[in-house]
Design goal:
about 0% strand; elongated; mainly alpha
Length: about 80
Amino acid sequence: MAKRKARSAKRSAKKPNRIVSYIKEVRAELRRVVWPSRRTTINLTAMVFGVTVVMSIAMGLVDWIFSKVFALIIG
């Protein structure tokens, strides 16, 4: 009985908790990340917003054109 407890204590001491190990690795990786500056973040966000607006307008025009063409063909 004492041998079983000793073995289980050795196993648990050798094997670190996987979740704790994962969190430590994530924190270490986040320390190595080079984060963009505030100005860069604002510029990239504005670019994404602008492209989204332009593409939305373009897709709306394509949809409107197709609806008119199909209305002429069908109607």
